[in-house]
Amino acid sequence: MIYVPLKHLKPGMILARDVTCGSCFFSLLVAGQKLSSSIIAKLAKNNIQGVYIQSQFCGDLEVTEVVDSELKQTVITELKHFYNDYASHATISLSSIKAISNTVNDLVNHILSKEECLINIVDIKDYDTYTYTHSMYVCILCILIGIQQCYPKSTLTELGICGLLHDIGKLDVPLEIINKKSVLTNEEFKVMQSHPDKAVVRLSPCHQISSAVLKGILTHHEKYNGTGYPQGLMGKNIPLYGRITALADVYDALTSQRSYRKAWSSSDAIEYMMGCADTHFDFELLQSFLKTVAIYPVGTVVELSNGFIAVVIQNSAQNILRPKIRLLLPQEHTGEEIDLADTNNEYLNVTIKGVADDEMAFPEILFV
Questions:
Q1: Which of 142, 154, 207, 284 could form a disulfide with 163 if both were Cys (CB 3.0 to 4.6 A apart)?
Q2: Rounded distance between C-alpha atoms, residue 74 and residue 24, angstroms
Q3: Are 353 and 304 in contact (CB under 8 A)?
Q4: Domain match, 152 and 218 both
Q5: Domain for residue 127, yes or no?
């Protein structure tokens, strides 16, 4: 299978994976379905940026998910219940807190059971359900960073809860500010900046939520150089959970499509975040984060520095910039496999320029 961006899809191509949509992850299209002009238009209408397509040269590729769709749906369902409880009651019920804690604990167990803890998929995100899906992915990323840091299971669960609830204070911010597509005024931005404080005020009476989680929620917008909010904390003075949640929050926000902008590619988001090392982020934690996310997910078509076109077939957390690839173009090299991390081959000085975006990188012969 090959991941093909929306603008390069053509009638006759055959889906290699189901296309899910919305916070319930319902199937919009199913694997094996042949694309038509109307189906491509349907994908565009649902803000789907690309899909996995069958290819004669990549039929053996499998994209594995860190978290199964069924569990994702369970997480979203419990989060919605918690949000409703938060919005309608002065005090959060004990049952809601227990449900969230149990769900995150199940999520931790699920992720720990996986042999490969690497986000290795171009997840399809619907900006109409951004509030819930964003919180879920931040939760997952926080857990993965914690695994890289070799934290105990109890800490992983707390990190997951922090990630899942980090933005709940936005329920106390007027919708006209939350949904505004233009630049916020200074006064509106001050209101938006109050959401971590508002969340902690509401959640503090819940003794089942630890102080470490509350501190993480409060400080997930702090920056390592002291220019963040709400307290302007600097360096290691920012609580650990806040520093970790900040990484997960920024990455998922950048790679999610919004009503006012397109999603960034994983590689662009990582490049930006690496440029913010030691200004926005804790460098040590950033290094761990980089081992949880595939810059070029399996099935991604990339352009090499020598002009060749290839598809990524395997990633390694140990060398995220140099995955194993299979050449697609030029045709005389089609099918050759190269491990870019291998220092003993002729491609030692060849690098990945970026995700292929030219029409020439997706010739029809690949999809016959």
A1: 142
A2: 9
A3: yes
A4: yes
A5: yes
Q: What is the CA radius of gyration of the chain?
A: 21
Final residue before a domain boundary, out of 232, 260, 290: 290
The answer on 275 and 183 residing in a single domain is yes
Q: Give the SS3 label for residue 220.
A: coil
Amino acid at the residue 195: H
Other beta carbons less than 10 A from residue 247's beta carbon: 26
pLDDT for 46:
85
Percent of the chain, pLDDT > 70? 94
Overall domain count for the chain: 3
Count of other CB atoms within 10 angstroms of residue 359: 9
Give the global pTM.
Answer: 0.89
Which contacts qualify for 355-359: CB closer than 8 Å, 24 or more apart?
Answer: 355/265, 355/267, 355/296, 355/300, 355/301, 355/302, 355/303, 356/301, 356/302, 356/303, 356/309, 357/5, 358/303, 359/8
Same domain? 79 vs 110: yes
Task: Kindly report the CATH number assigned to the domain that includes residue 17.
Answer: 3.90.105.10
How far apart CA 91 and CA 86 sit, in angstroms, is 7
Q: DSSP string of 87-137?
A: HH-SS--HHHHHHHHHHHHHHHHHHHT-S--SB-S-----GGGHHHHHHHH
Pick from 49, 50, 195, 76: nearest CA to 130: 76
Domain encompassing residue 358: 298-368
